[in-house]
Structure formats: C-alpha cells, structure tokens
Task: inverse folding
C-alpha cells in the first residue's frame, strides 16, 4: 500500500543541524511532487517546502529559506530535508507529504511524522 | 501571502445534526482559466496525520463519506457535515494551493455536544 516513512528526528541544540529522510513505497515516487509540512505541539499545520517530481523546482516558506534544503533521490524513493541553523521555533512534528501531482495540487498522502526538538 | 481564516475556532454539534465550518481567503483562489478553486479540506484526528477530504473546493475524495461536502468560490468556502457521527470528532483545516507559500487555516475543533 502507499506509505511514507519519516526518520531522522530528534533533539538538537539551537544552531545545530538535522537531516530528515522519508522513504516512499507503494507508488511511483519519481512521478510526484513532495512536500514537508510541520506542526508544533497543539498548533496548526505549517507548510515548509516543496520539491518538483524531478527535483528541478523547489519552494520554501520564508522562515526556513537559507536554512533548510529539500532534496530527493528518485533512485532510492527518498525525500530529504536538511535543516541547518535550527531555532527553538523549528520544534515540531515534521510530516512528509505526497502531492496529487505538483505544487498546485492538494496533499493526498501523509507520513506519520517525525518529531524535531530544538532545545538547549 | 494568502491568509486563510477559519470560523469558528471550535464548535460542538449533536450527533446527527449538521456541522458547518467556514474558511475565508485573503484573496481569490479561483483560477478562471480552468474554472477551479484551489482549496482543500483536511481532517486530523488526535495522534494521526491529516487526511485529505476534499479538493478543488468541492470534490470529495474516494472513500470519504458523502455526509462531507464542500462549497464556495473565490474567497469564501464551507465544509459541511450533514449528519455528525461520533467518528467525525477531529480538527479540520482548509488549505489554499493557489500559490506559494501554501497556507492553511488555523483549524477548527469539532466536538460532540
């Protein structure tokens, strides 16, 4: 079945780095745009980044521009989020999400999420 | 950025009664060239990731019960649950995917009265 499995979350100090991974299965990963969406505890959903099916286009929310990098390896069916210069406000559950097609489409499959805690 | 504002923040409805959640965008998310509103609704139950219910403002996704419906156009949208069931207790979010940054409403908590 269609599945997205995130990994790589954990506790990191402010200013530190973390790389999240998301392994996809059950669909042709290389055909779809992918996103990261985060949710702080008890808060709403916040879109973080998008990457086109072939990796050629990437978009970010302003608060992570220059600090986070979204990438993908279609040969490994894996999506990544490299997070540098982490701040306490980056603390959240990070969801790996599949778009129906591209950035101008809804999000039809979500992973279970991985928790990132930025704290000293 | 397009700001999405939901109302109310929370509501409680009796079982079998109608629940209505509103979502307003700060600018039109209707694209005239394809006659589509770039609006989706998601349901999130405690401890679970969100689930897509409706896209293009009114297209119910496969497997979603027909008591869920979406309506509206331009800047004003509505999610209606025609007859509330116990399993519908959840948070509901609207989302615009008209342009980046993609933005969500703040969420509406739906409970049983």
Result:
């Amino acid at each position: 079945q269609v599945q997205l499995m995130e990994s790589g979350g954990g506790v990191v100090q402010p200013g530190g780095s973390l790389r999240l991974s998301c392994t996809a299965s059950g669909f042709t990963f290389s055909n779809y745009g992918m996103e990261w969406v985060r949710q702080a505890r008890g808060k709403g959903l916040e879109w973080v980044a998008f990457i086109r099916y072939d990796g050629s286009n990437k978009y970010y929310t302003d608060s992570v521009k220059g600090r986070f990098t979204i990438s993908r390896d279609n040969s490994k069916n894996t999506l990544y989020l490299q997070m540098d210069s982490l701040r306490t406000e980056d603390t959240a559950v990070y969801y790996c999400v599949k778009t129906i097609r591209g950035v101008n489409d809804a999000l039809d499959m979500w992973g279970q999420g991985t928790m990132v805690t930025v704290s000293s | 950025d397009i700001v999405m504002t939901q109302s109310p923040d929370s509501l409680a409805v009796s079982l079998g009664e109608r629940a209505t959640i509103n979502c307003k965008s700060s600018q039109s998310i209707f694209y005239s060239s394809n006659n589509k509103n770039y609006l989706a609704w998601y349901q999130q139950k405690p401890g679970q990731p969100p689930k897509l219910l409706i896209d293009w403002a009114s297209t119910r996704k496969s497997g979603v019960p027909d008591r869920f419906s979406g309506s509206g156009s331009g800047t004003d949208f509505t999610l209606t649950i025609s007859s509330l069931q116990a399993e519908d207790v959840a948070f509901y979010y609207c989302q615009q995917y008209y342009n980046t940054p993609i933005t969500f409403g703040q969420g509406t908590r739906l409970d049983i009265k």
